[in-house]
Amino acid sequence: MRFRTESSPHMIPAHSVGGVMQQVLMALVPGTLAMAWFFGWGVLVNVVLAVLFAVAFEAAIVAARKRPVMPTLGDNSAIVTGWLFALAIPPLTPVWVTLIGIAFAIIVAKHLYGGLGYNPFNPAMVGYVVVLVSFPREMALWPAPDTLSEMSLGLGQTLQTVLTGSLPAAMDWDAITRATPLDAMREGLGAGRTVNELTTSPLFGTFSETSWEWIGNFFLLGGLYLLFRRIIHWHIPVAVILGVAIPAGFFWMLDPDSFASPAFHVFSGAVIIGAFFIATDPVSASTTPLGRILYGAGIGLLIFVIRTWGGYPDAVAFAVLLMNMVAPTLDHLTRPRIFGRERRGPPPGDGHG
Amino acid sequence: MKLHRFHGGLKLAEETDASTRDPVLVMGVPSRLIVPLGQHIGEAAEPCVAVGDRVTKGQRIGQSKGYIAAHVHAPTSGEVVEIADHAVPHPSGLSAPCMTIQSDGRDDWGETRMEPWLDWDTRDPRKLRQRIRDAGIVGLGGAAFPTAVKLNPRAGQRIHTLIVNGAECEPYISADDSLLRSAPEAVFEGIRIVAHLLGVERVLFAVEDNMPEAMRALTETLPGELRERVQLVSVPSIYPTGGERQLIKVLTGQEVPSGGLPADIGMICNNPGTFKAVCDAVIQGRPLLSRIVTVTGPGVQHPRNVEALLGTPFADVIAAAGGYAEGVDRLVMGGPMMGFAVHDDAIPVIKGTNCLLATRPQDTPAPGPLMPCIRCGECAAVCPAQLLPQQLYWQARAKDFDATQEYGLFDCIECGCCAHVCPSNIPLVQYYRYAKNEIWAREKERQKSDIARERYEFRQERIEREEREKAERMAKKKAALKKKDSSADGASNENSDKQAAIQAALERARARKAAKAGDAVEGAATEQADKAAATPETHTEPSQSGERDSTDTGDR
């Protein structure tokens, strides 16, 4: 009798890449729905369009590289990239902006480097930064969460806006958009007002604007699910959040009038989703435990620095990309102590005689 | 007793219920036994009987060659009908020399049986060790390292703790579990013998916490006089707790130094089956002729443990377990994590065969499509050696073998945790084996070329020296002619000069080699070599060549 002789382990594998990405997608659902609740159909329209574009580009370029298309699509990584990109852009972003961003993310940031596993930078963030730098006006059009409920754009109107790039008649951008809390804080502080004046506005909840807080909470829920399922480890999210909160807290204690509270920083903008979903992209992050802590802390610190003294209201994408650059070095410098060796022990024996 | 943890590891399903339901079945003598001559770590034995010879049960048929080696014995009486290459259990699937014995059905011990030593405690430890060597005993946990070698620590090394490794951590395997349930007395007797041999003061007997029956049997039969010394410890069943280094960490919190052996920290670790074999060899004069094999998996009808003679074909063992189930397509020797799939079931049971696992496609599907590494780091999270498997993988793929060594390739115990959790279906352990083999091959090449270079350099030295001497002679002659008063002691002087020059040349060559091998010496060695005054020992000592498979536990 002849038998198959594959190598060990002779077990059903514990994980698959597609399965891991699927879990990530599931974990994105609550936060995405919360965003859609506050910002309307546009969020979902963006997600659908971005995912479609991402999958289409992925299929096209994999075919062009003469690799098997279906197994590659089965890893679900393009869907994750598209989805994360969609959450980063304003809900009524014109479709061509999405198209350009996704094209850059999938084709340049991912496949020109060799595809999944080989990209040094987080593709979704590369795509987002490209459109953020190229189309600052479109990227600033965040609708006000509460006005939307009054003047709510239906699905049809939303689609029309996204596809044509202009609002339905009798509406204009000024009426429906408003500065995000981070914008408001930045401009307010720039104009010499104090943090206290800015946060007494009725729009503010406990830490930040109510809507952003709730969105953050739901992404946090998804993130905790990923932690629970051991899809991600605690090092990066905790380090990112502390990396923002500790310097923010330090300056806030020095001068609470000119610096926003650490809680405001953590619950505004993309810190929560960044900490759990973007910085934890394994391909472009550090992989050692200590390396992950330093990587996350670096992202957190850069977010705070750029927000406070830089030219952009939020900085998750820049911070992630900057830290992507040092991830390989971090990995090299933070190798764990090998079993049976001193951390600074003698050079390794070669183990053969 | 306070237990410790090792990094990583996996909580795996046990899958041992089915195979431990029935007591151990002692299999009969098959009509034909195929006994491989190399069943252990080290060089294969040399046949010491010829085709056509009649052999008795327990007769030595393979004589061990070298120090790290083991004898092979006839598992039953009969006639040697063939000495030829035959498929053996080896990951390579290659054939190796085997002796085929046609059984005569009498299972006759004849006159060759060793004398039973009921009074073993009056015997010299060296005699006991020789008995263990004569009995061909090797570690029965699967690695099959010659036990007499393991029990012979280096001069000056004191062994204070003996560890009984009953942590059978791979799923499906229950050979030790069955042994401990069925013959705990023999295991304890073996422990007494080995403890006496080594003069150890404490014995830690580790059993996994998912083997309660074995634990109960041990607690009930622990002899009174061992109670002081033997401590039964229930350890959590986390794979690979049964790895020697991991178990020592769990029990004592100490780590065996990288590249070293447990004996370096005063410990020796053996499988319960090995102790039983020691007991049989000493008390009954019975060499290692059979072992307990777990026959299990969804691919056999009636999973169970059997005691099979070495040389019994796998097919017979499977038949003893009710035969194959429908659709079986993989037969693994060893457990699902570290075992290897064999292509054929005519392969015989050897000393290291602790388990035969038969599976169907739905239990062990063909590996999914190979995906790129996404650097998720799960492999590092589960690695009990605290390595970075994904980095080793990249380096092995890039054939950057220096980097693999820097990242601790040789600390890898090939437990397979990384490959099991890898979401990209990368056969990581295969890459590490490949890298290790490449490095070993290169090292051999390097040694060869070192010798060649040494010879060449020596020759160069000699030619130079001869030229120099010639010139000196000429000069002397000239001087002598000039001075006209020739002295008689010139000849002897010249002779001793020559000796010194040869010595100096040898020293230089040796020092250069030492400087190459050991990374520590560098400048000092060459500097000293030029003086050629230092003793050769100081140069050769720093060479840190390895001791992975205990070559230096040797007689010194």
Task: Describe this structure in a few short sentences.
Chain A has 353 residues and is mainly α.
Task: From the structure above, extract its key features.
heterodimer; A: 353 residues; mainly alpha; 2 domains; globular; disordered C terminus; B: 556 residues; alpha/beta; Rossmann fold; six-stranded mixed sheet; 17 strands
Which helices and strands, and how do they pair?
The complex is a heterodimer of chains A (353) and B (556).
Chain A: H1 17-39, H2 41-64, H3 69-73, H4 77-88, H5 95-111, H6 123-134, H7 136-139, H8 145-150, H9 155-164, H10 173-176, H11 181-190, H12 195-199, H13 210-228, H14 235-254, H15 262-267, H16 271-278, H17 289-309, H18 316-333
Helix pairs in contact in A: 1-2, 1-4, 1-13, 2-4, 2-5, 2-9, 4-5, 4-6, 5-6, 6-18, 13-16, 14-16, 14-17, 17-18
Chain B: E1 25-26, E2 32-36, E3 46-47, E4 54-55, E5 60-63, E6 72-73, E7 78-87, E8 95-103, H1 125-134, H2 147-150, E9 161-166, H3 175-182, H4 184-198, E10 202-208, H5 212-221, E11 230-235, H6 244-252, E12 267-270, H7 272-284, E13 290-296, E14 304-309, H8 314-320, E15 330-333, E16 340-342, E17 355-359, H9 378-382, H10 389-397, H11 401-406, H12 417-421, H13 428-483, H14 490-517, H15 523-531, H16 536-540
Parallel strand pairs in B: 1-14, 9-10, 9-12, 10-11, 13-17
Antiparallel strand pairs in B: 2-8, 3-5, 4-7, 5-6, 7-8, 13-14, 15-16, 15-17
Helix pairs in contact in B: 1-4, 3-5, 4-7, 10-13, 13-14, 14-15
